[in-house]
Write a structure and sequence with these properties.
By secondary structure, this protein is an all-alpha fold. It has 16 helices and two strands. Strands 1-2 form a two-stranded antiparallel ribbon. Helix 2 packs across helix 6, helix 5 packs across helix 6 and helix 6 packs antiparallel against helix 7. It is globular and about 65 Å long. The mean pLDDT is 93.
């Protein structure tokens, strides 16, 4: 599949889902079950709507749609509900991630946590509690949209099981992500495990499973290869995120660079940096690591060290290696499933790396 064709498909899915998501929230706002006296409940829903509709390319939705196309090019049941469930679970994750990371910005706008902090400057515990509850509400809605969907009972049950398992895996991923930062120097396998649990299982594996279910396939028959593809793409994607946090462009990302360093996070980038620097350079890195007040100048100095020591180039090369491995896994699907969709899954990991370059 050519780059242009790939991007056309992704853009088409993004347009389709943007309309679907807008309609979903418009309907939900008229049907939301909350007491008439409550101001906080509809405000919470408004914040979730605002964050959700500030989405990017909706790659999870693209994965879902292309997973159905592995089996059939015709209409399938449950597709709208599955897409909504995927992105509502993503909204849940963003709300809680920003709270855990104390992030002021998300997708070019205020994070839910900071929106509540501005709303209640003298009530920090209320802002904290409402943020947690907003994330919880998004999770509940992601399951409810499947339970309310008009589809065969067996398919509905299977989809709810996929999303419930994906949510539980993500919570474990968030826990071990925090635990990782207590370690002095976590090895690569620990970083891979965090990437798998925290992102790959809900962002890659679950959309694949949901799409196959919607198309009438039994994803459990292909569990090993689907998990391997998701794991490799997840590792590649996490490497990209870690890379961009130091070597990316703040304007393009919609958030400042150097956040991981300031938060003391043991990322792929930090591991690569510490393996490449001399003692004097390490002191510069250590100055930034875990210092919330670290200046942009110090972050720029660490970035310059990473570029000069070849860390940025090495990380891009590692991302390409994992992307090629994922593409090779997808290529093995060709005898079983439809060519055009297989080509999409081959192209996806490589496109992710190219975006990081």
């Amino acid at each position: 599949m050519s780059q242009q064709r790939f991007l056309e498909r992704v853009s088409g899915y993004e347009r389709w889902f943007t309309t679907l998501f807008e309609e979903y929230f418009a309907t939900l706002s008229t049907q939301f079950d909350a007491p008439s006296f409550s101001r906080f409940a509809p405000e919470c829903l408004d914040l979730l709507r605002e964050l959700s509709l500030r989405g990017g390319k909706r790659m999870r939705v693209a994965l879902l749609r292309e997973a159905t196309r592995l089996v059939t090019d015709g209409p399938v049941e449950g597709l709208d509900a599955a897409a909504l469930s995927i992105e509502l679970l993503q909204t849940h994750g963003l709300v809680h991630d920003d709270l855990i990371d104390d992030s002021p910005v998300r997708r070019g706008g205020p994070s839910t946590y900071y929106a509540y902090r501005r709303r209640f400057p003298d009530r920090p515990q209320a802002a904290l509690g409402l943020t947690v509850l907003a994330g919880d509400l998004a999770l509940a809605l992601s399951l409810r949209v499947l339970l309310d969907a008009k589809m065969p009972a067996g398919m509905r049950q299977s989809m709810v099981e996929v999303q419930t398992r994906a949510a539980a895996d993500t919570f474990v991923g968030q826990i071990i992500d925090l635990e990782r930062d207590f370690a002095t120097a976590p090895d690569e396998e620990v970083l891979h495990c965090v990437a798998d649990y925290k992102s790959a299982r809900y962002s890659i594996l679950a959309p694949l499973q949901l799409g196959l279910l919607a198309a009438g396939e039994q994803p459990q028959l292909f569990e090993r290869e689907l998990r391997e593809y998701a794991r490799l793409v997840g590792i590649c994607g996490q490497m990209r995120d870690d890379y961009l946090d130091l070597f990316g462009d703040a304007g393009t990302m919609g958030k400042p660079v150097g956040t991981d360093l300031r938060d003391g996070r043991h990322t792929y980038t930090l591991r690569a940096l510490l393996a490449a620097v001399d003692d004097a350079e390490r002191r510069v890195v250590d100055t930034a690591l875990g210092d919330p007040a670290c200046t942009p100048g110090t972050i720029a100095a660490v970035r310059e060290i990473g570029e000069r020591r070849g860390v940025a180039d090495r990380m891009r090369a590692d991302m390409r290696t994992y992307a090629k491995q994922a593409s090779a896994v997808a290529a093995e699907w060709r005898p079983r499933w439809r060519e055009e969709a297989v080509s999409f899954f081959e192209r996806l990991p490589l496109w992710s790396v190219e975006r990081a370059g």
